DNA sequence: GCACATTGCGTCACTTAATGCCAAAATGGC
DNA sequence: GCCATTTTGGCATTAAGTGACGCAATGTGC
């Protein structure tokens, strides 16, 4: 019943894992659209189900609650930060890395993902007045913080559950959240969507440095390899 | 948080604002007890009602949802931080102020409040595994952050919605949250409850200084009044 | 003291979010 | 094609949460 097998890739898990995410994201898209259009309380599970073309029962199979339908869209809106953070090489500064990542991100993004990002910002805004949605937003930030703990632990050569690492991760995550909220609010109020210059990344990086007492943000000196980072170090960060 | 069934003004029918809070706290106490004993999902609204000796309908008159029944107890567990922060004189350092506040707090606390504090810690722990409760905890932290924005704005001579102030408040709040979680976990795992020495306040203050790049934590120099760093003046507040 | 308005509470009926159960459809390996 | 597993839909059901009405308690004016 449970699992098996070693030989092949997984028949059940492998495909489903990916497919499941797609379904959840599709549901989340419609739910977010409806939430924004008519509010959370004004949107019923049946409406979401009808909009996405599934039965109501199936909606509750994919999401534990109505509000959690917004989670994938919100999570995806911070996904680029997460992947950027995960691939942050030890020897680079935060502004350098974010700048190149943002460039790559802008080139690779599809119209659909762009629309999703817009929905994510709208959910962020909606979260300010709808306590039900605030959970989704705070949960996403929570995940960022957790991921940050791993990244910071690597850069400082400590454990992720080290108290100091947790403090740095929490402060960094909180700063990123405030900046996200600030930028998102600006975008919704009609700010120029193409205003993300290099000075913004410098601002973000400085905010992180301030929040961590300078412990996070700068390149990390690796023992014995001052000039050029060796393969091992690069591999650990997965460039 | 304060938005359940907004009790607008009160003058006519006598007791409300104050009595209402008491009723809510009483309900919250029983709810927290049950949540801790049998989990959130394992506790029904009827059980809470029976435990507190009210009808189920009345429970829903005081709380909009089952999980929100835990909010008052959680909020009260950070209340001392809130009041301490609010009364933080410009000319005192954070460790000084927290030390004296903690002393006053320990002397004034009643057995009931002590039990409530214990329940609050338990809800904090429960929030790690019960997403429904995590909202209550994160909401309480949210309020702390908001309050912090006001305090920090005063100390830096800026506006509470200033971006830098918001960043400092967020980073400080996140640090306090981590420390709360850390201390709370330690207490629940059987740590000595009377272990809160002065070095702990120094640790907290240093964490805040680190999270704000040194901008918050030290005495603030007021124009024309030379600030004495140590035990000089203890009973003055100025804005 | 008595009528009075106001408010809180309880009871019942009701809507809706959410789960369990079972059968039909879809999916993937052979 | 066949079979095993998973996914889905429909239906019944539980539990969360609301609305409506009546009653009891309390405060106010007389």
TrEMBL record, chains A, B:
Keywords for the protein's UniProt record, in alphabetical order: DNA-binding, Transcription, Transcription regulation
Keyword Zinc appears in the UniProt entry: no
TM annotation in the entry: none
Pfam family, one: TetR_C_14
Ranges where the HTH tetR-type domain occurs: 21-81
DNA-binding region per UniProt: 44-63
Listed GO MF terms: DNA-binding transcription factor activity; transcription cis-regulatory region binding
Disordered, as annotated region: 217-239
Tagged with keyword Transcription: yes
Protein name (Swiss-Prot/TrEMBL): TetR family transcriptional regulator
Organism: Streptomyces diacarni
């Amino acid at each position: 019943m449970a699992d098996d097998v070693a030989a092949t890739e997984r028949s059940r898990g492998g495909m489903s894992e990916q497919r499941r995410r797609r379904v959840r994201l599709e549901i989340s898209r419609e739910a977010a659209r409806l939430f924004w259009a008519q509010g959370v309380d004004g949107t019923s599970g049946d409406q979401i189900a009808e909009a996405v073309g599934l039965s109501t029962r199936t909606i509750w199979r994919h999401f534990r609650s109505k509000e959690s339908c917004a989670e994938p869209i919100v999570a995806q809106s911070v996904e680029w930060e997460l992947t950027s953070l995960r691939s942050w090489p030890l020897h680079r500064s935060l502004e350098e890395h974010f700048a190149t990542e943002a460039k790559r991100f802008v080139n690779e993004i599809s119209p659909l993902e762009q629309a999703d990002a817009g929905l994510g910002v709208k959910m962020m805004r909606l979260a300010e007045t709808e306590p039900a949605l605030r959970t989704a937003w705070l949960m996403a930030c929570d995940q960022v913080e957790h991921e940050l703990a791993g990244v910071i632990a690597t850069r400082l050569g400590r454990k992720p559950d080290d108290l100091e690492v947790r403090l740095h991760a929490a402060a960094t995550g909180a700063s990123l959240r405030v900046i996200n909220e600030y930028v998102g609010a600006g975008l919704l109020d009609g700010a120029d969507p193409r205003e993300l210059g290099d000075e913004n990344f410098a601002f973000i990086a400085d905010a992180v440095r301030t929040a961590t007492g300078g412990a996070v943000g700068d390149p990390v000196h690796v023992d014995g390899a001052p000039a050029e980072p060796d393969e091992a170090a690069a591999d650990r960060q997965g460039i």
